């Protein structure tokens, strides 16, 4: 490293999606600004993304940007969802490190210093928070979330475990790779896992949000879970195929049973056998169709075929 390079400071972009966060934002800004004060070797910028808030969030963000030159904000024309807000934030960040944080202080700003140290000095491309528990959350939601992550882990073959959220600091190479995936239906946890790179996980405890309410109803969480599964796997179509195969097998067994018990293939057993066989065949062919469609669907996302991490000797 030469003298000039030594003097160039890193820039950490802190991306904060905000949807109706007037109650939590002042505390977030105070705590986060305080936490980044003593990060040596790096300056910070805040990229707040107002996701179509209907409260005083835009006003607060305008105030921050008027009084603190490190604060920038974008305001969406309506609520587009956290995925869109994170994408917009990353697109508008100029830092060589980018970190995504919730506005409700559930992602502890005290971890930023350690995250920066890890990506800067330990050779990792990303340092991510691993939420160790779900205290402060309703038992129903905990149960449903756990079941979902268990299911998605099995069907998608990507590392998207429980507690592995969006709170992470990435270097520029990883950030650019995430931005290269331009699909409309975004599921960031899957995207992080898809792009690869080396990630170090640092555990943190869950706390109740600083103020305001969660923006996720059970219905929206369910829709989000379905999006996650459909964006990264064709498992639902395989389930149709398996069901079809099971129905065909049941038709065969009914036929055999009917013969063995001396009824022959007539009357009721024949009817049951036919119903099972016809439905089984239909489901099998629907699943084949589904498999072709899911291939086409994945193609339409135009995801990169590979992602290069480093080059040498070119
Ligand atoms: N959020 C957003 N758009 C939405 C919903 C949420 O930008 O449509 C933001 C929200 O303001 C917060 C973060 O995403 O900063 C996480 O939301 P929340 O705390 O409600 O989710 P939870 O922590 O309950 O999963
Ligand atoms: Mg929260």
UniProtKB/TrEMBL annotation:
Highest taxon in the source lineage? Bacteria
Report keywords, A-Z.
Membrane, Transmembrane, Transmembrane helix
What are the Glycosyltransferase 2-like domain coordinates in residue numbering? 13-176
Listed GO CC annotations = plasma membrane
Quote the InterPro entries the UniProt record gives.
Glyco_trans_2-like (IPR001173), Glycosyltransferase_2 (IPR050256), Nucleotide-diphossugar_trans (IPR029044)
Any stretches that span the bilayer, and where are they? 239-260, 266-293
Q: What is this protein called?
A: Glycosyltransferase family 2 protein
Organism the protein comes from: Candidatus Mediterraneibacter stercorigallinarum
Q: What is the lineage of its organism?
A: Bacteria, Bacillati, Bacillota, Clostridia, Lachnospirales
């Amino acid at each position: 490293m030469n003298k000039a390079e030594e003097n160039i400071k890193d820039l950490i972009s802190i991306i904060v999606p905000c949807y109706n966060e007037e109650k939590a934002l002042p505390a977030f800004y105070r705590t986060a600004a305080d936490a980044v004060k003593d990060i040596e070797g790096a300056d910070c910028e805040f990229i707040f993304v107002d996701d179509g808030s209907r409260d005083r969030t835009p006003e607060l963000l305008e105030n921050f940007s008027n009084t603190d030159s490190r604060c920038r904000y974008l305001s969406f024309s309506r609520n587009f969802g956290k995925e869109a807000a994170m994408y917009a934030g990353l697109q508008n960040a100029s830092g060589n490190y980018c970190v995504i944080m919730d506005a409700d202080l559930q992602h502890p700003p005290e971890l930023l210093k350690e995250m920066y140290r890890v990506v800067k000095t330990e050779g990792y491309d990303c340092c991510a928070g691993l939420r160790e528990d779900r205290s402060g959350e309703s038992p129903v939601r905990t149960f449903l979330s756990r079941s979902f992550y268990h299911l998605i882990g099995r069907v998608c073959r990507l590392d998207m475990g429980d507690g592995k959220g969006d709170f992470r600091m990435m270097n520029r190479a990883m950030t650019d790779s995430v931005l290269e995936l331009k699909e409309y239906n975004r599921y960031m946890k899957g995207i992080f896992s898809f792009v690869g790179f080396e990630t170090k996980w640092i555990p943190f405890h869950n706390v109740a949000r600083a103020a305001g309410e969660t923006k996720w109803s059970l219905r929206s969480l369910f829709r989000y879970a379905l999006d996650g599964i459909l964006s990264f796997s064709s498992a639902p179509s395989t389930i149709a195929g398996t069901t079809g195969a099971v129905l065909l097998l049941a038709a065969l067994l009914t036929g055999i049973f009917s013969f063995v018990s001396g009824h022959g293939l007539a009357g009721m057993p024949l009817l049951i056998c036919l119903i099972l066989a016809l439905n089984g065949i239909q489901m099998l062919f629907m699943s084949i169709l589904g498999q072709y469609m899911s291939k086409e669907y994945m193609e339409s996302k135009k995801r990169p075929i590979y992602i290069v991490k480093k080059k040498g000797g070119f």
